[in-house]
Description:
The complex is a heterodimer. By secondary structure, chain A is α+β, with helices and mostly antiparallel strands.
Amino acid sequence: xxxxxxxxxxxxxxxxxxSARLQSLHAVGEAGISIDFLKMTPSGMSxxxxxxxxxxxxxxxxxxGVRCTVRPARCVVEVHAVNxxxxxxxxxxxxxxxxxxxxxxxxxxxxxDRLLIVVQEQDLEPLHQELLKLAEAAx
Amino acid sequence: MRVKVMKxxxxxxxxxxxxxxSALRAVSAKEQxxxxxxxxxxxxxxxxxxxxxxxxxxxxDIDPNVTPEPRxxxxxxxxxxxxxxxxxxxxxxxxxxxxxxFRGGQAxxxxxxxxxxxxxxxxxxxxxxxxxxxxxxxxxxxxxxxFVPPQGGPGAELTTLGRGGSDTTASALGxxxxxEAVEIFTxxxxxxxxDPDYVPQAPTLRKVTYDEVAEIAHLGxxxxxxxxxxxxxxxxxxxxxxxxxxxxxxxxxxxxxxFPGRRATGVxxxxxxxHLQFDLSPCGDAEREALEGRIxxxxxxFGVNLFMVNVSPSxxxxxxxxxxxxAVEDLLDGLVAPVCSSTYLLQIGQNASxxxxxxxxxxxxxxxxxxxVAAVTEGCTMVSLIGHEYMRQAGLFAGLLSTxxxxxxxxxxxxxxxxxxxxxxxxxxxxxxxxLIHDRCGLSxxx
Lengths: 139, 447
């Protein structure tokens, strides 16, 4: 589990949305802010930054007139599952269990040996417990 | 004893000439003071008489409507490697080097009981060690092992290891025999920065970490199987990918601490995906979660592989392999989901199918039925950039997306992790997207 992230949600971008997304991303990049978990939404995008970057990211986006919401206290849960792609349906199974835990999943991505799930701090413990049960059952 | 495990893939054993070249490599290793252990795949690739696909088709051709039993399928496809190992061992004998062929079980490879995708549980390489001690070259069938049921039974059951299984056999034997190196021989010079069909000038990587190569394989490149890289990483065995037919030095795969630094490693593509985006905006929080649970639970139960999963308050999306899309459509289109006090009816695609209309008619009078529509985009490809300590650069996303935008390549979704950054693009643009990202990251200059 990794703590200390802020979710930045950029919305209501003008058409063409892709062009406006790029303008926002350039502004963040030029401010020297590294982002993770970029996800496109119909009218914008969302991404994570380190908590320490939440003020700088707002300052970077404000001058270009972008509407953004900054939500701190986000965590990344790493579910280690070696060769996740070999086990058919494995990703769906983990996601289904994570949803069952009552956690509100904000982002998901996968690597060769793990699934990364972004949740709010308050959802961390119930999610962790459900995932531990899954890991126990897999043994 | 300096053990070296040498795995020869399908093309390296496809013809008598190829087998002779491969056998000479094993002989050369022996002459250099190593004790080689050879692992072989089935002879040839798709279409070849003893290739795995050919054997499977022999069974399916009897009646395509009858699904073969996984147990019998494993017994059949294991014949490809058995044939290959016996012929390879005999080739070595003709060169004056005593050799012994071993089935996976005879080599001491014990697996779990999952036919078709078994996992190695243990290796007791007693017979291999004995063979090596007596100066022989053991030739082991890749891709297979045996399962010994705990409650006993008539005998050990033959199992196969699933995709990339021969690489896994080689790596696992390397660990069990405390090998000095594991060499994976194939028909390319090593791990390339991109698919040479897309980027003909893509250079061969001289050194790469286990993590990087596992991620490259995970995201679509056919190099070393991720499971093989994982085992090598766990046991710290030097792993090489080399070309059977050239003297190129190949790619060395090493631990992360042996090859530090920030770099782009390669660009991969995973083709033939279908993207589904469910509009869940009309649902409340509790209903949305329950519906998502139902959708993902169904995908899990039927073993659907998901790519680029995306969840947000307004909807859920993911991509599935085109080969699995008909099954996904069957499972989800017309699915009725009573959630909380509402009833939801799932519709795949903008136009309602007969199934959906039938369900809607049946549900008439049963209270309010809310339709949830999934927008479907067929013909997608996931293009991924893999790098080591590369993804944390400020402005990387903006730069890559700008490059694609300027080339008028639409990006349907993105996904990223510590090691990779992926974009979902139309299949028709995949080739251009790979080349553009490859160029932008200066990967051609690695040559």
